[in-house]
Amino acid sequence: MRLQVASLFLASVVRLACAVIADEAYQIDYHHALLGTPQAHTTFFHRPSSSSGASLLYSLSEKSILGAVNPKDGSIVWRQNLTEYSAGAGLLRAVDGEDAVISALGSDVSAWGASDGKLLWTKRFNDDASVTSLELTKSHGADLQAVRDPHCVIWGSNPRCEKVGRDNLPFRVSITSTAVYYVSLQPASRKGYKISVVELDIQLGRVTNQYTLHSENELASPNPTIFVSSNAASSFIAWLDQEFKILKVNLLGSKSIHTFDVENHSGETVQDVKIHTSHSVPHFVVYYNTATKSWADVFHSNVKSGWVSKAFQLPVLDSKSASASNTANNQLYFARITRSTVDLFSSTAENILGTWKIKGNSGELEHAVLEVVARGSGFALRFAQVDDSGDWALIRNGELEWRRPESLSDAIVAAWAEVNGGEALAHELEFEGHQDALSAYIHRVKRHAKALQDNLFPWLQELPTKALSSFSASDGTELTQFGFGKLVVVATRKGRILALDSARQGAVLWNVKAAEGAGTWGANAISAHQNVATIFVKDGSTVKVNITSGDIIERSQPTEKYSSMAFISDAASPIPVPIDADGTPLNSHLRIEGDKFLVTLSKDGKLMSWNTASLEAPAWEFVPPKNQKIIHATARPTHDPVASIGKVLGDRSVLYKYLNPNIALVSAVAGSTLTLYLLDGTSGRILHTATQGGVDITQPIASVISENWFAYSFWGDVTDTSDAKGYRLVISELYESPIPNDRGLLGNAANYSNIHSSIGLPRPHVISQAYMIPEAISNMAVTETRQGITIRQLLCTLPDSNAIVGIPRFVLDPRRPVNRDPTSQEVEEGLARYTPFLGFDPQWYLNHAREVMGINRIESSPTLLESSTLIFAYGFDVFGTRLAPSQPFDLLGKGFSRIQLLLTVVALAVGVAILGPMVRRKQVNLQWKA
Ligand SMILES: *[C@@H]1O[C@H](CO)[C@@H](O)[C@H](O)[C@H]1NC(C)=O
Ligand SMILES: *[C@@H]1O[C@H](CO)[C@@H](O)[C@H](O)[C@H]1NC(C)=O
Ligand SMILES: *[C@@H]1O[C@H](CO)[C@@H](O)[C@H](O)[C@H]1NC(C)=O
Ligand SMILES: *[C@@H]1O[C@H](CO)[C@@H](O)[C@H](O)[C@H]1NC(C)=O
């Protein structure tokens, strides 16, 4: 009876525990699905269907990714990588209410379903031509008009080319309901450029009118300050002189030029001018910014009678501001946006229609798109802005709705950082690991006593809230104590530094500007130590950032240029050693004790090894045979602990692993041959060579080495054997000897030298196996755990399916029996029969159903719990997760109910209390009866 009660309760507890894994998908992992920084001229709100009022945000980003974003929450509705089809600067247009957006990139023009992102049609023009302007007409459906270099206006859904103005620089097309205007720049005889306008009949495509405007005094360079309106109620060309002193306007179709003076406010020069038009009202707004001031001029026009006049000017604002416009209810609305406020105006009157205070916003605004809704007497407005960090944010009525960290799409280097004393605890645990049992125990008791002293009182204070929160799901903060709450410090190509919190779904904690200059910042390496992240830049400068607050603590000036940075681990902290392009360490005066080796690769493909005790001359050099080019060299990860030095076989004998800490794996290609060299880092001797023929070296080749094994993948076509062509993954394991229980030549030698050895360097016994895999692997990495007991996973990025898989190591065991079933001893070892084709099990996909685009680096970091490791992948998208390759054996899952456990214990106690006397009475009665 007692037993039954117990097993019943236990059963319910056990069932719960099994549900842990499925439950944590999308909880412990995070994904920033990015587009790249949106460009001003290819970003807009658009309604995909005229029946529903809801609009989406569309953008063709700097990275040529076209995507739709839901303005409510900032999530991606769909995205497409346009570089897969064409390259070049992009254009993007849409016609209101039509379910299509049309993109032009290079010589391709494509239409995409606006609501689902499906490709509707695509047209490729001559490859060496590129589309310079693209316009759509509403009256002809989503008909397309494009100007193509050289000198061709393309028409309609059945493209027809109309040759115009041969010697001119094509600039823009503009469309009205009756005509198409082709605007080009014609070099004037003496200097400057004239504007040439060709008018074509929209139906027939015939030239009906042609004129040139004398703009050569203003337009001195072909990089002009011209604006051509399109699909606007007032179709015009506006241009300014180089100093922004005068504005000239020509209404398309007439030859007359209207001249306006740009007002000179306090002698400051105008820095930028933006012109907003409307498709339904013949008004336009010219927006000026100087270094410290901004204002706008509103113009009204009438095309029929050919007049343009300045209606009014907005009061000058004593700060820079950005502008955005929107046409709604037959009104041209425009917003003046500063860091703290947004003011709404219309083109009909000077008064402010509404003002909103902006909260929770940071950064200098670069450009924005606006949407205005009239609500009774008031207005509601939202705008999506790109600020100087490159991030994209939506602000609705002054409140920040969402922020997309698009700057992360430029991430080039990342490093893990411990916070909240995690580093100190890891250090203490490390210390205990290296002591004998007794002193480790004493140390531990002391540590706990101190922790109790420090933490008991705050813990007791927090207890009531904690007890309450344990009823609900645990939050991220609780996880930090296991080392799960690490931060990732990321540096981007454009000079930003960000910190992401891996315990809070990869939330961006801060994003600071570290350097000027778009796309040129050569951040090379990051080291994070004691709450300070140091970013090493290729020009020799460094930036130090406080990891908690994101404050820049220190910047050092550029010194000597270098090409990469190596870190040599030392007792205190890793020592940075800059490496020149020719592979030589720059600070050759550096002396690091302890016989450490540094292996470098020079630009001309030579491998060199340096003893850190003297960095003046290389200890050895490795030059691959003629024609071969080294494409990749890699070593074991810095943190690569080995839990067991041997592999126990089914018959209890042991195969000893070949464990050389100084080992390098070098891949070299020549023609269609891939050669892998396994080198000893101290002596430079080749330990093992593997050669693969029929390799397509234009396809990705990835390789990784860890513990006593290495893996690589490539596209191979081995026609002389029965193997089919395709992607392959090869795994090789290194053992001391092919014979179990044998330690090879060195036997029980206590010490030996790789360099000065009479018996020569023992070579490993290598067992290899190849698998066919379904698709290319572009990068590989290995999971790292604290002590290396947990099964390792081979992490691979799959560029074709935008995924990351973690292949458990035992699946790849090269000792899997070939062409026969495993014997019972092999089954005991966990070996399954070898199958040449290795399909990727759906459970191996770390990203689940999400698409992770453009990943080119995966970093793994151990936590304080042996079972778990943190993963961070970046390159374009950012993805992170926590893995437990051998199940979370030392961790209670999120679904574990402490309350239920307590209730079980209470129920058991009650059961015992009630049943105990009953049973005793029954036994006494039985004895009396007997
Ligand atoms: C503006 O006026 C100042 C004098 O007040 C003059 O020095 C300056 O050149 C003018 N700037 C422009 C852009 O006209
Ligand atoms: C970093 O910033 C935090 C919070 O502002 C501060 O408490 C800490 O002392 C700073 N650390 C360093 C190394 O400057
Ligand atoms: C091994 O190390 C010991 C102590 O360092 C040394 O005396 C001995 O000669 C070494 N043995 C060999 C084979 O080098
Ligand atoms: C887009 O496609 C191109 C060409 O296939 C590729 O090089 C690039 O990495 C892709 N971009 C992303 C973000 O995946």
Automatic annotation (TrEMBL):
Keywords: Endoplasmic reticulum, Glycoprotein, Membrane, Signal, Transmembrane, Transmembrane helix. Coiled coil: none annotated. It comes from Uncinocarpus reesii (strain UAMH 1704). This is ER membrane protein complex subunit 1. GO terms for biological process: protein folding in endoplasmic reticulum. It is a single-pass type I membrane protein. GO terms for cellular component: EMC complex. The chain crosses the membrane at residues 899-919. Residues 1-19 form the signal peptide. Residues 706-928 form the ER membrane protein complex subunit 1 C-terminal domain. It is found in: Endoplasmic reticulum membrane. Belongs to the EMC1 family. Residues 19-406 form the EMC1 first beta-propeller domain. InterPro entries: Beta-prop_EMC1_1st (IPR058545), EMC1 (IPR026895), EMC1_C (IPR011678), PQQ_b-propeller_rpt (IPR018391), Quinoprotein_ADH-like_sf (IPR011047), WD40/YVTN_repeat-like_dom_sf (IPR015943). The lineage of its organism: Eukaryota, Fungi, Dikarya, Ascomycota, Pezizomycotina. Component of the ER membrane protein complex (EMC).
